[in-house]
């Protein structure tokens, strides 16, 4: 045992522990300091470990001579070190983990301010008004703010790596020192055993690094997961939903625990094959209705009933495979036209060509090289305005058999629908009511007369 660079105590580990001098007192002092950590990992203290190991060795090796047991000193000493290593690595892991989690959260929050996609989408307008330089400067400022959190998160990794490497070097030094001490005090030490202990010590740094990172990953086990894709004892029929009757019964939801409700006690009924337009100001909960129907957010209260089945009780695959969503900005995926139309290969060519004809795209696809097998070169090629207008016409003519919920960002899109979810009445009746929220939205759009004319034609046509 060293103190201030001098050997103050030496001998066999067993004898030094029995003498209860400097080494014994040092281990007891450490054991008292690490009691809480030992309790957390439910492992015995260092002194208890020694007493247990010593009893087991005596029990198993009563007939073995003293000499082989002397050669076990360095190995037994190293074997008792994991308690110390666990304490050090746990402390490093805790500091690094909490610091890094905070930095990553800050980085994600700041990253939300970088409007890269929105800038690309409106680049034509930006250039037309000669505002390119202003947007470049704004994005550079936001990127600098993002780097203020991103760079410290990388530094946190380096902080942890340096301490783990130092700890690994300390273990290698301790193993080497114990080997030298053992060779000085005992002439018959096994060279192979010394080499084995050093080879294991050399790999400790990598093992510690992996262990700490795995400790951090374990925390994700406690995160709530989505419902199973299929619940065998509660599966809908193959033809569900037959009618498309949707009932919201006192439904409430939130995006995560601890936040306020985004939908509070919503109750309404959508009749089979009815076309419903959903309008409202930003933050009114329009998108939350869609997310709740697909169970991207779970219910905090109430229920959603589709054709007599509570959707919270069925598997996510059974639910989402029976519903269809057309996003606000449809995007073509990288691959072929056929893959974009039928990614799961559940339709034949006749149905696919019929769908293209309904979408007014049959002539265009027929002129492509390879037709259905033509490659989509630009993976982010969005549908243009003209094609979107054709899709809206197709929805009105081809989807008469389906129940339709439409989140309207343009009021003319839903002016001829059956009902509008503002006060939940027909568009014509809501426009006649001067106190209607829907009427106020139409007036603010500067298209009130045009919308009123469309709603009147809808009433007279029926």
From TrEMBL:
Coiled coil: none annotated. PROSITE patterns: ABC_TM1F. SUPFAM superfamilies: ABC transporter transmembrane region, P-loop containing nucleoside triphosphate hydrolases. Residues 118-219 form the ABC transmembrane type-1 domain. GO terms for cellular component: endomembrane system; fungal-type vacuole membrane. It is found in: Endomembrane system. One of its GO terms (molecular function) is ATP hydrolysis activity. It is a multi-pass membrane protein. Keywords: ATP-binding, Membrane, Nucleotide-binding, Repeat, Transmembrane, Transmembrane helix, Transport. It comes from the Eukaryota. InterPro entries: ABC1_TM_dom, ABC1_TM_sf, ABC_transporter-like_ATP-bd, ABC_transporter_C-like, P-loop_NTPase. This is 5702_t:CDS:1. It comes from Racocetra fulgida.
């Amino acid at each position: 045992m060293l103190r201030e660079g001098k050997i103050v105590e030496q001998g066999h580990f067993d004898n030094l522990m029995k003498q209860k001098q400097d080494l014994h007192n040092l281990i007891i002092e450490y054991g008292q300091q690490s009691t809480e950590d030992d309790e957390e990992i439910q492992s015995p203290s260092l002194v208890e470990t020694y007493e247990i190991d010593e009893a087991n060795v005596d029990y198993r090796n009563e007939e073995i001579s003293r000499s082989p047991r002397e050669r076990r000193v360095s190995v037994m000493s190293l074997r008792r070190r994991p308690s110390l290593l666990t304490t050090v690595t746990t402390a490093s892991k805790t500091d690094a983990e909490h610091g890094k989690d905070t930095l990553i959260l800050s980085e994600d929050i700041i990253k939300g301010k970088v409007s890269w996609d929105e800038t690309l989408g409106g680049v034509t307008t930006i250039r037309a008004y000669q505002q390119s330089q202003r947007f470049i400067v704004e994005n550079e400022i936001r990127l600098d703010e993002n780097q203020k959190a991103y760079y410290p998160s990388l530094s946190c990794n380096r902080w942890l790596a340096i301490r783990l490497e130092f700890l690994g070097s300390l273990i290698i030094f301790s193993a080497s020192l114990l080997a030298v001490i053992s060779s000085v005090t005992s002439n018959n030490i096994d060279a192979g055993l010394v080499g084995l202990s050093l080879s294991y010590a050399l790999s400790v740094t990598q093992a510690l690094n992996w262990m700490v990172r795995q400790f951090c990953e374990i925390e994700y086990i406690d995160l709530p997961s989505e419902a199973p894709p299929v619940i065998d004892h509660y599966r809908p029929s193959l033809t569900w939903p037959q009618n498309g009757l949707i009932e919201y019964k006192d439904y409430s939801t939130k995006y995560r625990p601890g936040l306020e409700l985004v939908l509070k006690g919503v109750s309404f009924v959508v009749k089979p094959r009815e076309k419903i337009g959903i309008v409202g100001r930003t933050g009114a909960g329009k998108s939350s209705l869609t997310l709740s129907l697909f169970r991207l957010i779970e219910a905090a209260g109430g229920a959603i009933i589709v054709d007599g089945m509570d959707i919270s009780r069925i598997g996510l695959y059974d639910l989402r495979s029976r519903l269809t969503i057309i996003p606000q900005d449809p995007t073509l995926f990288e691959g072929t036209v056929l893959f974009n139309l039928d990614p799961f290969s559940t339709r034949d060519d006749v149905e696919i060509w019929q769908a293209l004809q309904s979408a007014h795209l049959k002539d265009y696809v027929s002129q492509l090289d390879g037709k259905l097998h033509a490659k989509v070169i630009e993976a982010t090629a969005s549908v243009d305005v003209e094609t979107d207008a054709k899709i809206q016409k197709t929805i009105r003519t081809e989807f008469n058999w389906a129940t339709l919920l439409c989140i309207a960002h343009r009021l003319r899109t839903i002016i001829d629908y059956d009902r509008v979810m503002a006060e939940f009445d027909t568009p014509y009746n809501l426009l006649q009511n001067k106190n209607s929220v829907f009427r106020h939205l139409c007036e603010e759009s500067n298209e009130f007369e045009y919308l009123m004319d469309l709603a009147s034609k809808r009433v007279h046509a029926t």
